[in-house]
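Example record for the data management plan.
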Amino acid sequence: MSNIQQRTFTLSTHGQGLYEITDEIRSFVRSSGAVQALLTLYVRHTSCSLLIQENADPEVQGDLKAYFARLVPPTTDPQMSYLRHTYEGPDDMPAHIKSAMMPVSLSIPVSSAELVLGTWQGIYLFEHRDAPHQRQIVAHLA
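Corresponding structural encoding:
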């Protein structure tokens, strides 16, 4: 077994929201045979983010989506009229702003071949665009 393993996950999204990927990442770590390691996750896009967030109550994901929609509304909102990057639609530049505010990479310790996450923590891709996308997340385990 190599000390370093890498895999790219592709996730299909269907609009703005949080998409939990904990099970897929946990399966990758378990199958790697790594006992003590550091997992780095990196999303290869500029209009979505990665988060570790509560996964017990779905209201948390809904509230986060609502908060960021209110914080950074689409460019059709009059308060966003100063934005110039609107070529790909009214959600495009706001998606880039949200992505700039949140992480695009995460580091998670691995101990005894398990992710060291808290009881209520899950790993999410936070999609900031309205249209469906194919998102790539690179998992690097060393």
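Summary line stored alongside the record: The chain is about 25% helix and 35% strand.
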